[in-house]
Specification:
The chain has 380 residues and is α+β, with helices and mostly antiparallel strands. Helix content is 37%, strand content 28%.
Length: 380
Amino acid sequence: MMYVVKEHSDLDALATLQSDWRRLLSATPGGDFFHTFDWLEVYWRHFGAGHQLRVLALTSDDGVVGIVPLVERDHATPLGAFRKLTFPLDYWGSFYGPIGADRERLLAAAIAHVATEARDWDYLELNWLDQTSLLADTAEHALWQLGMQGKRQLDFDTSIAKLGASWEDYWAGRSGNWRSNCRRNEKKLAKQGTIEHVRYRPRGQEFGEEDPRWDLYEQCERIAAASWQASSTDGTTISHASVRQFLRDAHEAATRAGCVDLNLLLVDGEPIAFNYNYVYRGYVSSLRLGFLPEFRQYGPGTVLTRRMLRDSCQRGDHTFDFLPGSGKVKRPWRTKVCGGEQLRYVPGRLSRVGLWETGKSIVERLRGRDSELAKLAVED
């Protein structure tokens, strides 16, 4: 099937695609809040300066059948700045890709379009490709058909909990030691007062439920500011100055879209822990969490996570994505590990960007060799 591809580079002009975007996302395998227009709009208004938005709308005789959001951004290297064409995610979520039912065919068409049109990008880097899908295979094959060779590698792992048919089934799959640990934490915390789990999940503007409940959100901010993560300088907490306003605007947009999932754990009516998530059609993305340090010995994060996952099973959520990072904390809860793949295409080995890519590959191989030698030294 041949598609007609139309590019959109102006965020305001994209408003005409919103109804198609919602329709297509509802049929997209692995769709989540990060694939919504609502997310892209807030993300772009905060972080789009100096970059070029390139949203591809693919149409057939049946109308718009797919949308592929892309962005050109500068990437600084020792050899100068290069223009990278990639997805607009920046590791906020785990996975990204085309919006539409036939994601592989849409991605192949998008690659053919950007590779054959007049290029103002230096290299293509598609991150966040779900390893359990065929997207990385498709992208690699699409480049090959154009006489281009991409470099493919695993970028990260993320912990996923598939919640299954019931809480009992899921919970029975956790280790006996972990279940005992959770029960001990519940008992210890219960001695400090009455435990309550508050979950706010409005259905959105369509259902007249668009109150952002700033009182609850600001409790999450307050806990984050008091947690051990508050000293982080990379914006990993929702209270960090570099991302605070962005996440507040995203919270407001997610509320309107019916994608907010805010969790608080209270003891005697006082919030001590939070888990802030996005949810889309039963797919929960765990964005940020934290707890008051004075309650650390009682395992408040464990208590909240157990109650939250149990409630998710009762609500019919099918997937809880813990997002990349902090694997040790997430390991007891997960049912599987999913990899995020990266596919990079750099044209011209003798170009500046080609030389940078070659040097980068050499450094990565040397680091891998040093890591293996260190491991052997320890074993000896």
